[in-house]
Fold this sequence. Notes:
The structure holds three protein chains of three kinds. By secondary structure, chain A is an all-alpha fold.
Amino acid sequence: MATRVTSTRPGTKKRPGGGPKPPGPNGKGPGSNGHGKSHDQSPRFSAATYRITIWVVLAAVVMMFAALSSAFIILASSEMWQPIVMPRMFYLSTAIIVISSLTFEFAKRSLQSGREIVYQRWLKLTLVLGFVFLITQLLGWRELAAQGVYFQGQPRRSFFFIFTALHAVHLVGGIIALSHLMTRGRAYHDIYRVERIEASASAISLYWHTMDVLWIWLFSLLLFWG
Amino acid sequence: MSVDTHEVHRHPAPTGFIRKYIFSIDHKVIGIQYIMLALAAVVVGMIMSVLMRMNLSWPGTNWPILGTLFPGGAPGGMMNPEFYLSLVTMHGTIMVFFVLTTAPQGGFGNYFLPIQIGAEDMAFPYLNMLSFWVTFVGFVVILAAIFYSGAESTIGPIGGWTAYAPLSALPNAGPGQGMGMNLWIISIAIFCVGSLLGALNFITTLLNMRTRGMSLMRMPLTCWAWFTTAVLALLSFPVLLGGGILLLLDRTAGTSFFIPGGLYVTGVLSGTQESFPLHTGGSPILWQHLFWFFGHPEVYIAILPGMGATSHILATFARKPVFGYRAMVFAIFAIGLLGFFVWGHHMFISGMSPYSAMTFSILTLSIGVPSAVKTFNWLGTLWGGRIRFTTAMLFAIGFVSLFVAGGITGLVLGQTSLDLPMHDTYFVPAHFHLVMGVASIFGMFAATYFWFPKMFGRYMNESIGKIHFWITFIGVYCIFVPMHTMGIVGMPRRFAQFTEYEYLKELHPLVVFVSIAAIITVLVQVLFYFNLFWSIFKGKRAPENPWDATTLEWVTTSPPPHDNFAGHLPVVYRGPYEFAVPGAPNDFVMQTEPGAEVSSGNGHEGHKH
Amino acid sequence: MGRVLAVIIWALTLGSVSLFFVKKWWFPTAISAHAPALDRQFLITIIVVGLAFTAAQIGLGWMVWKYRDTGNRARATYTHGSSRLEVIWTVITAIIFIGLAVMGQSVWASLHFNQAPAGSYQVGAVAQQFQWNFHYAGRDGVFGRTDPTLIDDSVLNFIGLDEADASARDDAVHSVLAVPVGRPVELFLRSKDVIHNFFVPQLRFKQDLVPGMVIRVHFTPLTVGKYELACAELCGQLHFKMRSYMLVLPEEEHRELIGLPQDQFQTRMTELLAKYQLPANN
């Protein structure tokens, strides 16, 4: 396949000078970010990759929940729904996920100011809160079952379970990412590692905050609509 | 020609067969895998269309071989109506998902997007491998849906590729609507996941991995098309996935998202028997909203890469810059954006609010404007050119012709009033087959003949290619134009036979004509398959830049090395289509060529009138 | 090669356009009040479509003929386009396309933005897999009560009519739709199982019947006769057989029919179906 070896290519780095238009600033290739040559990391790393990736992922997640929310709203407008008492556990879980967003934010701040031990501590707390949130959601299901609300029946009942279940699945994704972040937390004084960890921390925290806002949105839909 | 490059760390190519060809992380191998998947899927889809045409033209005939192959669907060799409908469903599903979405985007996009922007690979090579194999699993599951054996062997779901609820939501609503339908939904869900992974890769790669000098407005139009397609996929597939989950729950968990109360199906009232649980409060129209919110952008997912390839190829063989590059980019965006606000035109007569129907209608006809702008610009690109009629060019010109022929009848179907007689008649399949089916496929044929020398280092045979073009081009007109008149007479779609209605009998000669044209056209595709596989091994050797083209894929060897540019990423100095530049030594100036001898090196700013 | 391609493009264009022009296969003669306006809108649209199609294909053919590489010219014309042209053709197509869309709303508005006129003749329609059921209110003009739990196909109570209800006694249910000529007809469309579609080509009218919904539509048939009624939404394996008739009867004949008790209603309907012939195509 590769019939040409590297040495036969003109390898000189000629800076464009005579051309009418020098290369535009937009096309920043992987080699152009200045520190891609560090041999202990992939040359592909750039903070922008993390940023773009997380926004793209969030776009897909938000679209799916937007579709389900529209389904909820359309069905709510088409029929009288029997009232359901919002489980008290869901109020609690809402509080927990909001707090977990805050702790994650504290963790990120600590990392940025170089206080690694504090960062690790906040991260652990966030992780614990994530698990507690999942447990309260499960307890919320038990409350629903206690008032005779099961998965079947009027769509409103099903939506309670669908919304919580799908949100929980996505939050589990966040928990996995968070645990991953914790395992690679030892940055010491390697400048490149610090940069990478900061980039992934801010990407994952963005995801976490979105899960937070998403839950508040779903919770208010269930509480106030229909 | 001297090429400016900048060095990057090289990645050695894998040596083992499995890592090299099966579970490869090389975007080029993955691209070819997607193309092979589409080539296999399209054979299945085409055979199904021939079977459908046979059933429609010569109803009640015994085809002994069918009886042997499909004992459940054609007992004794005579096709059941439910077998016909499962062919309708599977033909649509396989063609839309596994051909028109995989080949243009997953196939050619995967192969050429990184090369055209001067990257070594996709941003996430492992994710890329994963998205192909996820898609492959989806294909296996969809085949399983047809051949799911049991009481209803060789009959897949019969609800059409749109799977309208409650027919699709009720396992007892007809044969094939049981396990086959579950598998259908699972397959589509898997496909959604694969496409989303792919979209993530495309968007990140394009935004973040362009080589030095490759500004957005210097990208080939193909890259714009693939990028917009990826954005469309990213925003539309999650909606289908969400809808699919709800539909599967309706079928298996007893929920009622799409099933209203009080249904009475095949002699059983909902809730009176265990086989038919109590349903209440769902809305069948909700499924249509969710489906078409995905379904309409999906149409553009199928055709945008074809548009990109056509622009690319027309410029190359007319030896001219693309006419109105900037307008072309805006038109792609406009089509992509408007594509999200027109889904209701599939639902004018569904019981949706007539006021929203009016809004959708006006938005729908607006989407004709950027489409027309693209057509004008293609004609403008040909104007004043020096056209070389390679097979790739013939197919690209055929694309323009078919895109106009198919697209323009959207002006009829997009009007609320005219949808009253036309909805669900053959006018609709005629319209969308020409524009999203055949035109897209012509774009892919053009792409195949054009890029084959780069992919395999050999040319495809031009003589066979031209025979393939002439017959296919005439054939598709003969198949789909008469379908419009069938629709005007009022022939409904998805009828297993037309024998029941008096007013349809006069159309019989036309039906037979279409079937014969279809069978001939399908048979001619054998030439294409032969040409393709024969040329991989025996075709004439091709040089690095066989078409005297300008973009980055022609800078590297044919086929490109594992890391595309052998460790030296090219540097870009100008727009993508600098042909016929006055004063330049050749009639094409490559994107990598520096130097002041070119008067206007920056393609997109050349409005000099 | 360029000339051959041009000629073939032109030939295909001619063939396609003539298929529409000779009208050998065309709409059946319309019978509804809204149809002339709709047919006119169709004609305008198809003329615009035909002209645009022909112009584009002739243009395409001309380009490939004129600008084929004959070896006489060293270079193609070097241009990147013209902003003025882009603006001109964008504006022109936008005006034509959106103009068509706005014009196309008038028939739609007359059918769907208004209630059925007072004094419309009302019929209930209940579709089920592969069969139409039309519910006639009978002499009293009041529909009897229906209930899904009373549906029993085995005793031919297809729509769940409550025999105990007084206003149901004179009601009739039949698979054929019989309506009076020249009077607005209002249909109450329902479905028992899956989505069906009410389609009579001569009416230029179509509407889905959606389970869980009652959809009210209206139209006015103007010509006496028997017309085929099709289901135009995929509803299952025998979708292609879900056929019935629409009888448009003179006012007098229709009044007599709906006044009959159930058993005589059936006989009379059979007679009427034999009396009227399907229209000869075109």
